[in-house]
Amino acid sequence: MGMFWIFINGIVYNPLLALVKISALLFLLRLVARGTQKVACQALIVFNVVQLLTFLTIALVQCIPIEAPWTMSRTARCIRRDVYSTALAVTNIVTDILTLLVPYCIFMGLKMNQRARTALLSVFMLGIMFVLPAPGLFRE
Amino acid sequence: MELLGVLTRDIDDWLILVAVALTIAQSVFTGFGNLSPPPSLAQLTNPHQFFTLGTGASTMPTYL
Question: Model-level pTM?
């Protein structure tokens, strides 16, 4: 039964990462009026939605039959977990970095005093504390 | 159409609420996974065995 909950955990975990980024990007989309930034935001939202649906589908049908991850059937046909994990980690790290760059570009382009800009950037760039160690943690 | 407008206006708030709910659900599922089968005291106190909680590794060593 433990493996069943680990399987469910994998299904829930991937969409929530994308949902957080989509939510942040939708919020930033309301702030930007300029063309390029707006298109970049929209493109990232679309990419995140595609990523969410792709990895959710793969997580659901990672084995044929579907119940193989928790029944531990030896005859089941499964995807290579290492390839799946690597693809998921790489796309997540890339989208994390791109999502972080959006507020940076927006606030650098605004006319405001340096102190207010630094304060705003430091709040919106807090996520970098999560992104920077990610490649190192993944390698381990 | 007006209702759709109201719902989509705050869609980023709704999405983050869903993400928070999923995070809480994920924590609960992780707990279920790690406690099924119930761990022995040896598993909880031994760092090498601790990370096999919920994987059934103690009962199916050949599979893993």
Answer: 0.77
